Amino acid sequence: DQQVKQNSPSLSVQEGRISILNCDYTNSMFDYFLWYKKYPAEGPTFLISISSIKDKNEDGRFTVFLNKSAKHLSLHIVPSQPGDSAVYFCAASHTGGFKTIFGAGTRLFVKA
Amino acid sequence: DTGVSQDPRHKITKRGQNVTFRCDPISEHNRLYWYRQTLGQGPEFLTYFQNEAQLEKSRLLSDRFSAERPKGSFSTLEIQRTEQGDSAMYLCASSPGPAGYTFGSGTRLTVV
Fold first, then answer.
1. Beta carbons of B100 and B26 less than 8 angstroms apart
2. Radius of gyration over every alpha carbon of chain A, rounded to an integer in angstroms
3. For tag attachment on chain A, is the N or C end more exposed, with fewer CB atoms within 10 Å?
């Protein structure tokens, strides 16, 4: 039962343009959402998060949007840079829960 | 380096052998997690410790898997009688609270 879904396995974007990575979830108990970035041969690295009481959180070039009614979140990277090329995981957890559930990831390619 | 440390980075073993992995979390983090990641998938939760207490285990963790965190510091994950299906990246993470993990670089297990 995939509670967190990233339906695009890969995305290719030109340097300087916007990258939009999407994520859907099914469990309405989730109230905290995160994005992680992963380079080859490294563990995932925390990137940005959002609580369900917000609909937007921004950190530099990275913005996460949450649409609770649609159970959908997205990560916007603007402007995209070649160093952003990595696998991005969407993840979710709920208050009182012990674990974070991850999506399958989207591989982002930023072309110079 | 105050990150999460995992040892070994790579392990190749023959089917039927036992293997043990070690994780040293960030020292002030009382929560420790083990995840498993296979190709094309996101990290899947295996087990969770709060201090030395193992509070949750996934049904993915069969009887051949055991994890310990004897003094609430480092943790070990042992797999007995390894099978080819156990081949994966085993990730350890720690956190001071319920979210925002810091992952280690993982141990890549190959069962031949």
1. no
2. 13
3. N
Give the separation between CA B35 and CA A9, rounded to whole angstroms.
21
What is the DSSP secondary-structure string of A42-109? S--EEEEEEETT-SEEEETTEEEEEETTTTEEEEEESS--GGG-EEEEEEEE-TT-S--EE---EEEE
Distance CA B62, CA B59 (A): 7
Cis peptide leading into B25, omega within 30 of 0? no
Tens of pLDDT along chain A (112 residues)?
689 999 999 999 999 999 999 999 999 999 999 999 999 989 999 999 999 999 999 999 999 999 999 999 999 999 999 999 999 999 999 887 778 999 999 999 999 9
Pick A97's closest partner by Cβ from B4, B98, B102.
B98
Whether residue A89 and residue B43 make contact (CB cut-off 8 A), yes or no, is yes
